[in-house]
Amino acid sequence: MTTSVPSTTVVDDIADDETVDNAVKKRLGFGFWVAISWIGLVSLAALLAPWLPIADPNEIANGAPRDGILGDNFMGTDALGRDVFARTIWGARISLGVGFLGILLGIVVGGALGIAAGYFKGLVDQVISFVVFSLLSFPSLVLALLITASLSRSFLTVAMTLGIVGIAPISRLARATTIQFAEREFVQAARVIGAKSRRIIVKELLPNVLIPMGALTLLGMGISIVAEGSLAFLGLSVEGEAISWGKSIVDGSQTRDLNQNSHVAFVPIFAMFLTVMALNFAGDRIREYTDVKETAF
Amino acid sequence: MARFIARRVVQLILVLLSVTFVAFGALNFLGDPLVNIVGPLAAIDYCDEVEAGLREDSYTSINNAKGDCEIIGEAKADFGLDKPVVQRYLTWMGNIITGDLGTSFQTQLPVSEIIAQKLPKSLMLMVMAQIIALGVAIPVGVYSAYRAGRAVDRATSVASFGLLSIPNFALGVIVLQFFALQNQWLPASFDDTSIGTRIHSLILPASVLGFGIAATYQRLLRTDLLTTLQEDFVHMARAKGMTDRHIMTRHALRPSLFSLITVFGVSTGALIGGSLVIENIFSIPGIGSEIVTAVIRDDFPMVLGSVVVIATGFVVINFFVDLLYTWLDPRVRAS
Amino acid sequence: MIAAACGGDDDGDAGTDAGTDAGGSDSSAADDSADADDDNEGEAVAPTITEPEAEEEAPPDPVVGGVLRVAMEADGDGINPVANNFAVSAYLMGFPMFDPLFAYDAEGNWFPYLAESASPVEGTNSWQVTLRQGVTYHDGSEMTADDMIAAFEAQLDDPIISLAVAPSFPATNRVEKIDDYTVQYNLLRPSAHYPVNLTSQLGMIPPASYIAAAAEDPTMDQMPVGQGPFKIVSRTQDDKTVLERFDGYWQGTDDIYLDGIEFSPITDTAIAAERVAAGDIDLLVTSSPDAILTLRDAAGVNTIENLYSGENDIMMNTRAAPFDDIRARQALTYAADRDSYAALITQGTSPMADSMFHPDLVWNNPDVVQEGNMPELAGPLVESYCADMPENCTDGKINMELQYSGPSVTQTRIADVLTAGWEPFFNVTEQELLQDAHILEVAVGQFQVVTWRQFGAVEPDNEVVWLECATAEGFITLNWVRWCSPERDELLYAQRATDDLDARVEMWREIQAEMNESYAYIFTTHANWTVGYGDQVNNLCGQTGPGGETMFCNNQGRMFFHNAWLSES
User: Fold this and answer.
1) Which residue of C has its CA nearest to B36?
2) B273 has a chain A CB within 8 A of its CB
3) d(CA B105, CA C126)
4) What burial class does residue A37 get, using C-beta atoms within 10 Å of its C-beta: 0-12 exposed, 13-18 middle, 19+ buried?
5) Residue B286: what pLDDT?
C-alpha cells in the first residue's frame, strides 16, 4: 500500500533462487531467528500438546479456583480451577491452526487471483480488481460475523472465515508484485520466445512473487490469530469445549476476574502478543531485506 | 479530472451493488427472519401440508381467529418473504435509493433512525482515534526518520512494533482495567449526557484504537521519509543551505505521505463500521454493537442497512483519498 | 415471561425472570420473614436485607427531587404489558408507570392495590374485581372496566401468554363487564386466590385506546401509557429510558419524592456494580454472582438480597430420546456435578437447592433431597440403557445434546462444569444458541437437556402453569419438560381451590416429592436477585400500599420506586 519505486539494488539481481537466498540470509539478523525460534517453539508445543506432561486443560478443579501464578499450578488456575498453562498450550493448537489454515486459503485463492490480474491485465485485471475492491469494502468483521453466527462454529468454518477476509489484501499484493515482475526483461524475453503463459507464470513469476508473499503469510497469520480473538470477544469463535487463546482471554476478562486473578487473561494475552510480534517481526524482516514493497492499487 | 470522478462514481455504485447483493443473499440463506416477526410460530414446519390440505391448521393463540399457518402466511406477505430473493433484493434496493432503509424487525423502528442515532457515536470514536493516531504518528515518524538508526529511532521502532502486535481487544481490556476500573481516572463506559462527557468517555477507547493505528502510520511514514530523503531534490535543498527542519517538514514530508494517506483511508473506512470489539468492551452504543446485535438476532433490515451505510462510507472515503493523492503528487495523476 | 427461564445467572440475560407472567405466576420469593431474629412459624418471609441496622434516631425527612439512575442487566424489547413479554428490566421500567391491580405485602399475601377489591362469586368459579374510581391515565382519561377487558383480550392474542392463561378459562365468556368499574373473571376451576395472577404483567392495564393504537403501530410499545406515579418521557432502546413524575397520579404526589427515573442497560453487571460503588449509578438489579460479590464488598453500597428468587436447574425433555427413559434421567442426575456448580459458578451467593422451594419457606419439603455427585450410581444405569437402546449410545456412553444460551461467559462456564461431570457416561454435544432461538427451541420441545432458571414466585399457585398437564401438550409447551402426571394435576388444582395454609403446604410437599421422583429436573442452586444501591437512596423497602399495607420488597428483582427518595448531595 505504499507507493514507492523499489530500490534497485537487490531486486535487479533476482534472477535465480540462489542469489535471492544469499541476499536474504545475509541480512536477516539475529532478531529474525529469535522470532522464528519462538514461532517454532509454540508450534511444536501446540502439535505435541497431547503428549506433553501437562495437566488436562479441561479438568475442572484441577487446582483451587483462581489460584495465582507459581502456586500449585505453574501459571495458576482459572475461575473453574483449570490449569492455565495447559489451556494456553492447547489454545495454541486452535489459534495457530486457524491462523495457518486461514492464511493458506487466503494465499491460494488471493494469490491466484492476484497473479492472474497482474499478469493478464486488461479485462481480467479489471474484473478481479473490482471483485477484490468489493470484498475489501465489505466490513470484514461483519462478514466474519455473518458466517460464524449463521453456520456452525467449527474449526474449519472459523478458519475459512478468516481466510476469506484475507483474500483481498493478499491478492492486491500478489497483483502488484506480479505487475512489477511482468515488466522485467526475463519475462518479456520468455514471452518473445513464445513460452506459454502458464509456463511463464510458474517458472518465472511465481518464485519471485512467493517471497513477498511469504512475508505476507507471516504477517497474515498474525492478523488471523488476532482476528480469532476478536471473534471470541463477540462470542463467535470455535464452539464447545475447544480452547483457543481468544476464548481464554475472553473468559479471563470478566471484570471481577481482571480485578482479582488477572493472570487468567494475561497469560494468553502475552502468548498471543509474543507470537504475533514474532510473526510480524519475521515477516517484516523478510519484506525489508527483499526490499520489495507493496504498491498501491 | 471529470473522467476520473465519473469513473470513481461508477465504481462506487458497482461496489455497492455487489456488496449489498452478497449481504442480502448471505442473510437470506443463512438465517430465518420469521422468528423476529411471528415469534415461536416460526418453528412450525407443516404449513406446506396445511396449504395442500393434508392437515388442519393449528390454533396456538386462542383468541385469534386465524390459524397459525395463516398468521405465518400473512407475515410472509407483509414482509415480502414469499417472493423470490432477487425480487426482494430489487425492491429493497429500490427503497434504498429513495432513502428508505426499511424497518428493523426487532424494534419496529425505521433502520435509518436507528443508524442515525448510533452512527455518530462510532464516527466520533473514529475521528478521535485518527486524531490521536496522526497526532502521535506524524511527529514521531518524522523525528525517527530524522534520527534514523540512533537510539531514539530504535526505541520507537520497538515500541511501534509492540503496539502493532498487541491485539486491540487485549489492549482495550488492559486499559479498561487499569485506567477505568482499578484507578477511576476515566469513565468505563460511554456517557451521553453532553458533548463534553461524550468526548471524555471516548478518550480511553479512542486511545486504544489510535495508538494501534499510530504504530502502523509511524512505520510507514518513517520508511517513506527515509526513501524520500535519498532523493535528488533533498540533496539539492541541503546544498542550498536549508535547515534540516525546513527540509523535513516542508520538502520531504509531503511526498512521503502517500502510504500514510492510503492506509489512513483504509483504516477510516474500516473504522466507520465501528470497532465492534472496542465498542463491546467500553459499552459504546455505536453502529458496531448494533450490527453485532442485529446479526445475532437475524434482524435483516438492520444488518443490510448498516452494511450499506458502511460500505458507502468506505468507498466514498477512498474516493477522497484518491483525490488527495493526485493533489499531493501530480506524477500519479496519470493513472 | 418466557424470558423467565433463560439459563442461569448471568450478565445480560434479558430473560431471567422465573415463572413470570404465564397466568400471572410470580416470583414466589418468600413467604417468610428472614429478618434475623424473627421466629418463623411458617409464615411469609421478607427477603434478606443486608443493609446496616437502622439507626436509633428518627429517620431523616424525605427529600423531594432528584432523578434516580437505575442500571439494568439488559434492555427489554418494549414496555407494553399486553404486547411484550416482561422480564426484570421491563418490570423495573414498567412498575413506576403501571400500578398493578393487586400486589403482595411483606408476608407474601395479596392485597388490592389499583383495584379496590376482589371477591369470589358465591356458587361459581368466578371472581369479581372492582376498580377504584377516579384513576387517571397519563393521557388524562379515566380507567374503567373497559380497559381491563381490552387488556385481557389483547393478552390472549399473544401465543405464549394465551397458552398460560387459557388452561384456566373456558372457551367462551371468559370475562364479563358487570358495570363501569367491575369485571368478572369466569374461571374453569375453583381458585381461592385468583388475584395473585394479577400482581404482575397481567395486572398492568393500559387504556383501551392505547392498546388498539399499539396493535396497529408496534413502535408505540416503547412509549406506553399507564396510570402509575411516573410517565415516560423518552426511550432509546439499548441506551436510555427516562421517566418523570406524573402530577395526575391517583394516590396524589405528596409522597412521590423523585422527580424522575433514568434506566440504562449495562450488560456487564460487574462494571455496573463498580459504578454503583463509585456513585455513578444509584441502583442496580442483578442476579450475577460476580456482581453480587462486588456489591457486597463495596463501601457505601447496600444490598437487598432475595434468596428465594427461583432455582437454577437443568431440565430434560421427557418426551424425546434419550431422556424419555428414566434410567437416562437418573444417570444424568447422579452424574451431575452440583457441588462444583455451587462452588465455582454460584460462589456461595446462594445455597444449593433440593427442590423448587428454599428451605426457609413454609412450602419446602425437608425430606426431598436433590441427588447428584454420585457418579458410581450412574454407570449401571447407562449400561442398562445402552444395552436396550444401542442406537442412542456410542462407545457405551449415551449421546446427548446440552443446549444453553450465549454468547455468555457464565453460561459457557456452566456448560463446561456440567459437561466435565457427565463426560464419563455421556457423549455431550454442546450447543450454544442465541437467546431468542434458545427459548424458542425449548418452548417447542426441540431440546434434550438445557440449563435453565425457574420458579421463585411469591405465591406458589403461580407455578401451576409450568407443571400442569394442560401445558405439556401442543406445539408450544409451557411445561417445558413435558412431564404430565394426573395425580400431580389433582394436587395442583386442589391447592388452588383452598385457602387453608396447612392443607396447601401438605399438597405442595407431595408435589415436590413427585417432582423429585420424576427426575425431570436437576436443581442446582437457588437464585439470588439482588438490588444494590448507594447510601444516597432511601426508603426502597417499607413502602406502603393504599391501605397502609407494607409492600413486598424485591420480588425477584422487581422493585417499586414509588416512595423512594434521594439524599441531598
Assistant:
1) C436
2) yes
3) 40
4) exposed
5) 86
Residues paired with C119 in a beta bridge: C128
Rg of chain B's alpha carbons, rounded to an integer?
26
Binned at pLDDT 50, 70 and 90, residue C29 comes out as very low
CB of C286 closer than 8 Å to CB of C89: no
Residue B194 DSSP SS3: coil
Q: If one looks up domain A50-290 in CATH, what number appears? A: 1.10.3720.10
Among B296, B61, C149, C494, CA closest to A231: B296
At residue C569, does pLDDT exceed 70? no
Cα–Cα distance, C368 to C370 (Å, whole number):
7
Give the whole-angstrom CA distance, residue C36 versus residue B117.
49
Domain ranges of chain A: 50-290
B315 touches chain A (CB under 8 A): yes
Separation in Å, CA C398 to CA C111, C393, C441? 50, 4, 22
Q: Cell 532523493: give the residue.
A: B231
> What count of other Cβ atoms lies within 10 Å of the Cβ of residue A68?
17
Closest CA to C350 of B145, C341, B15, B282: C341
Chains touching B, CB cut-off 8 Å, 3+ pairs: A, C
DSSP C261: E
Residue C349 to residue C269: CA distance in whole angstroms: 15
Report the residue of chain C nearest A253, measured CA to CA.
C409
pLDDT in tens, C100-118: 999 999 988 999 999 999 9
**SS3 call for C48:** strand
Kindly report the nearest CA distance between residue B165 and chain A, in angstroms.
5
Which residues 10-39 of B are in CB contact (within 8 Å) with A? 11, 14-15, 18-19, 22-23, 26-27, 30-31
* pLDDT of A113 strictly over 70: yes
Q: Which three cell numbers stand for residue C203?
A: 395486572
- Residue C388 has a CB neighbour count (10 Å cut-off) of 11
Torsion sign over Cα B182, B183, B186, B191: positive
Within C260-370, residue ranges assigned H as helices are 269-278, 289-297, 326-335, 338-340
Cell output for C316: 430434560
List chain B residues with CB under 8 Å of A145: 276, 291-292, 295
What gap in Å lies between CA C438 and CA C408, rounded to an integer?
13
Tell me which residue in C159, C221, C443 faces B61 most closely, judged by beta carbons.
C159
Q: Is the CB of A276 less than 8 angstroms away from the CB of B161?
A: no
Cα gap C523→C168, rounded to integer Å: 28
Rounded Cα gap, residues C220 and C202, in angstroms: 19
Nearest CA of chain A to the CA of C410: how many Å? Answer: 9
Between residues 37 and 66 of chain B, which touch chain A (CB distance below 8 Å)? none
- Tens-place pLDDT, residues C242-282: 999 999 999 999 989 999 999 998 888 888 888 898 888 99
Q: Is A213 helix (H, G, I), strand (E, B) or coil?
A: helix
| Exposure string over C28-44, b if 16+ CB within 10 A, otherwise e | bbbbbbbeeeeeeeebb
CA–CA separation, A252 vs A91, rounded Å? 14
The overall pTM is greater than 0.95: no
Considering only alpha carbons, which residue of chain B is nearest residue A219?
B165
Contact at CB, C434 and B106, closer than 8 angstroms:
no
Cβ separation C237–B109 shorter than 8 A: yes
What is the separation of C-alpha B321 from the centre of its chain, rounded to a whole number of angstroms?
A: 16
- Residue C134 DSSP code: S
Q: Cα–Cα–Cα angle for C82, C85, C91, nearest 5°?
A: 90
The secondary structure of chain C in percent helix, strand, coil, rounded to multiples of 5, reads 30, 20, 45
For residue B35, what pLDDT band results from cuts at 50, 70 and 90? Answer: low
Instruction: Please report which helix (H) or strand (E) contains residue A276, including its range.
Output: helix A263-290
User: How many residues are there in chain A?
Assistant: 297
